[in-house]
Design brief:
Number of domains: 1
Order of helices and strands: EEEEEEEEEEE
Strand content: 35-45%
Length: 134
């Protein structure tokens, strides 16, 4: 939400939306075990969408078959960035020297790159922010 000089703004228009759960692409799911579920919300003051949570790419039997780049979920219209981007992500698996990127696209798709190098593809996507303004 762009703010302009002289514009009247209601306080409720400045409050971020409620956190909303993501709809995963298989095999991705929430890690659980006391870690935050993957969610997103819109912050009107910053005109950004924020993502948080810890995601797990293992199959139900504990095995993993994710690719070097893996589609995790898609943000719905109204929560999509204006341009593509990427940020580094933390992970809770070895090797700890590995790097994982969260890639997000104007289409709303959110992908992880590099999670296939982990012994367990469990990745923290906390504090991922993307600009959604014009």
């Amino acid at each position: 939400m762009a703010l302009y000089a002289g514009q009247i703004v209601r306080a409720k228009d400045l409050v971020p939306t409620e956190w909303q759960p993501v709809e995963f692409v298989s095999p991705w799911h929430n890690f659980g075990s006391g870690w935050a579920d993957a969610q997103f919300r819109y912050d009107p003051v910053k005109d950004e969408v924020e993502i948080k949570g810890t995601v797990d790419g293992r199959n139900a039997d504990g095995t993993s078959s994710i690719a070097a780049e893996s589609h995790v979920f898609t943000l719905p219209p109204g929560y999509r960035p204006v341009s593509n981007g990427a940020v580094a992500a933390g992970h809770v698996s070895s090797p700890y020297t590995s790097s994982v990127l969260v890639r997000f696209y104007a289409s709303g798709e959110v992908w992880l790159q590099g999670a296939d190098t982990l012994t367990q593809p469990v990745v923290s996507i906390n504090n991922v922010r993307m600009y959604v303004g014009d």
